[in-house]
Design goal:
four-stranded antiparallel β-sheet, 2 domains, disordered N terminus, 10 strands, Rossmann fold, binds adenosine-5'-triphosphate, single chain, 21 helices, alpha/beta
Length: 607
């Protein structure tokens, strides 16, 4: 018996179900009304067969006078039942929508608070699948199945009492079916649950493939990957299809087996009932009522077994939903409780070591300090760990060893607001929302005026371009900002960063997509900003940071030099290499231009 119990609903499952009902707490009143009307409907359902039974009995005794009154009762019961059904359904719909709304909002806000590591480990599809698929499954289960199971359990209890009152022997025969239904319920339950878990995992992958295909559509077309992409899509959809078929067949099999058991039981009840009537130990009225009640009773038992697949599915969804809400699967993002309004001192990295998932050290014994209102540059080869330094400074990840101090306070002790209020970042591939240019700017600083927005756009040389657009500052930026060039996106991101007016600005290859002229002009703008802000720049364009107050040279996660451009070019081999490499590239570029111009000149002369 214990074995069955364990397979059907474990302690953890019960906790999950209780947690779901915690969401019902704010809507206690509605839930109560819904339950009351459910009970009323069940009770009216008990009255009806009794009236029918007595009508049949009146017919048998040729008492036609009483039949008319009984038909009136039947009509009243029917009207009461219909009204109750409406009130019950009305409350049920509102309740289930309220519940799924609360779950969704809770899950979304929890998701936003998850640490960056979680997003490295899990693909976007998994989050979409949990938010969309699981909540949908759950809301439909709360709306229909969990509610139906409550109704069925209530029916089993109430009708159970009534049939025992009518005839104990017949009731035991009806009940005899229960162990078989229960075995069916338990055996199929585990199978259904496993398949459900597999479907959910496949759905995570499905959403991920879909999302990647839509985002990378240009890449798919340009590289001729349409066929490969279709094969991947077909493959995952086929796997889902087979699992769905399997789950439906297993569910149906469980239903058919319990139906057969119940049907055989019904036959025995009818045969014995007729025997009792012939012996005058049971009236026709109660026999008819009994057959109807036992039918409903058995039906509720079957429904409970049929609903098994849905409960198992709900439990899988509940595990995934609460897994995210409670951060069981994911650690919670941590912040401290110290606030800083304005930054008065430096940023310090003290012996910082860091690795992402595995044990491969990305940053090794990083020590440097950035003085207030100075321009500091971080340079180094690809993968040397430059962006990782920004990630740590933004508290997206925590160092494994050492400390990062802002104004002498460890950033782990700062509130999230203190960090976000004081630091802005412009990424190499900035993200802009699918809103108008003005609305994007307002997101950066809701208090900014139209004049301020225009001013910063002028500073990044975007104003003229924007004014040339049909809707000027109200032009909506497409999803993925595909109606803007890479350089334009970076300029807008820079303008947004300026609007935020934070004392610390981080620029991660923020001008990499701009042409040489824009890059030169913007770097002038950055020099100006750094007069009253602390600016840290990551760049491969070393000529842009020749005037930086400090340049930090990174190599394979270690700092191999710090100082001014003049100092490093004389004393630092890595920096010299980087610089001469860039110079070589520039020279090659120049030579190519000269060659092109010369050959154009020659061909003109030839003509
Ligand atoms: N989220 C992550 N999870 C695991 N490893 C990462 C992650 N981000 C970066 N890395 C690894 O950390 C190392 C340093 O990456 P980082 O982006 O800091 O280098 P970078 O110097 O900024 O490079 P680039 O100049 O190419 O932008 C790389 O080997 C990279 O593969």
């Amino acid at each position: 018996m214990y074995k069955f119990k364990k397979k059907f609903l474990s302690k953890n499952d019960v906790t999950l179900l209780k947690r779901t009902f915690n969401y019902v707490k704010p809507y206690k009143m509605r839930f109560f009304i819904f339950l009351m009307f459910t009970i009323i409907i069940i009770l009216l359902g008990i009255v009806q067969p009794l009236i029918w039974g007595s009508i049949v009995q009146c017919l048998a005794y040729k008492d036609y006078k009483s039949i008319f009154n009984k038909l009136i009762y039947l009509l009243v019961v029917f009207l009461l039942e219909s009204t109750s059904q409406f009130v019950k359904n009305y409350n049920q719909t509102i309740l289930s929508n309220d519940l799924s709304y609360d779950l969704k909002v809770d899950m979304y806000s929890k998701m936003l608070n998850l640490p960056m590591k979680v997003f490295d480990r899990n693909n976007v599809g998994e989050f979409i699948s949990r938010l969309q698929g699981d909540i949908f499954t759950l809301s439909s289960i709360i709306t229909n199945d969990l509610v139906n199971i409550i109704i069925d359990i209530l029916k089993i209890i109430v009708l159970g009492i009534v049939i025992f009152k009518i005839n104990i022997i017949l009731s035991f025969i009806v009940l005899a079916v229960f162990p078989f239904s229960y075995i069916c319920f338990v055996t199929f339950g585990k199978k259904l649950r496993n398949i459900n878990g597999e479907i959910k995992t496949l759905n995570d992958r499905y959403f991920s493939i879909l999302q990647q295909a839509l985002i990378g559509i240009k890449h798919i077309k340009a590289y001729g990957l349409k066929e490969k992409s279709c094969i991947n899509y077909k493959d995952i959809s086929k796997k889902i299809k087979y699992k769905e078929i399997k789950i439906s067949i297993t569910g149906n099999l469980s239903f058919v087996i319990s139906s057969i058991i119940n049907y055989l039981d019904d036959l025995i009840v009818i045969a014995l009932g007729i025997y009792f009537i012939s012996k005058n130990t049971l009236s026709i009225q109660y026999f008819i009522a009994f057959v109807s009640y036992s039918g409903q009773f058995s039906q509720s038992l079957i429904s409970v077994t049929k609903i098994n697949s849905n409960i198992q599915e709900a439990l899988v969804s509940l595990e995934r939903i609460f897994g995210l809400i409670d951060n069981i699967d994911f650690p919670k993002e941590k912040f401290g409780d110290k606030c800083i309004e304005n930054i008065y001192r430096d940023i310090e990295f003290q012996s910082v070591e860091f690795s992402y998932e595995n044990n491969k050290k990305i940053l090794k014994n990083i020590k440097f300090n950035v003085q207030k209102n100075q321009l500091t540059a971080i340079v180094g080869r690809n993968g040397s760990g430059k962006s990782t330094i920004f990630n740590l400074l933004l508290n997206f990840y925590k160092p494994n060893h050492g400390e990062i101090l802002i104004d002498g306070i460890d950033i782990r002790d700062l509130t999230e607001e203190s960090i976000r209020k004081n630091i802005s970042i412009v990424q190499q591939q900035p993200f802009l929302f699918n809103l108008s240019i003005k609305e994007n700017m307002k997101l950066a600083n809701p208090k900014s005026t139209e004049e301020e927005i225009e001013q910063v756009c002028k500073q990044v040389f975007m104003h003229e371009y924007i004014m040339g657009l049909d809707e000027e500052y109200d032009t909506v930026i497409n999803e993925e900002a595909s109606n803007l060039s890479g350089g334009q996106k970076q300029r807008l991101a820079l303008a947004m960063c300026m609007l935020r007016k934070t004392p610390i600005i981080l620029l991660d290859e923020a001008t990499a997509a701009m042409d040489a002229e824009a890059e030169y002009l913007i770097s002038e703008a950055i020099n100006n900003i750094s007069k009253d802000r602390t600016v840290i720049v990551i760049t491969h364009n070393l000529s842009m940071i020749r005037n930086a107050d400090k340049i930090i040279v990174l190599d394979e996660g270690k700092i191999v030099g710090q100082g001014s451009h003049e100092y490093l070019i004389k004393n630092n081999l890595v920096y010299k290499d980087l610089y001469s490499h860039e110079f070589d590239l520039l020279r090659e570029d120049m030579e190519l231009k000269v060659l092109a111009e010369t050959s154009a000149g020659v061909s003109k002369d030839d003509k």
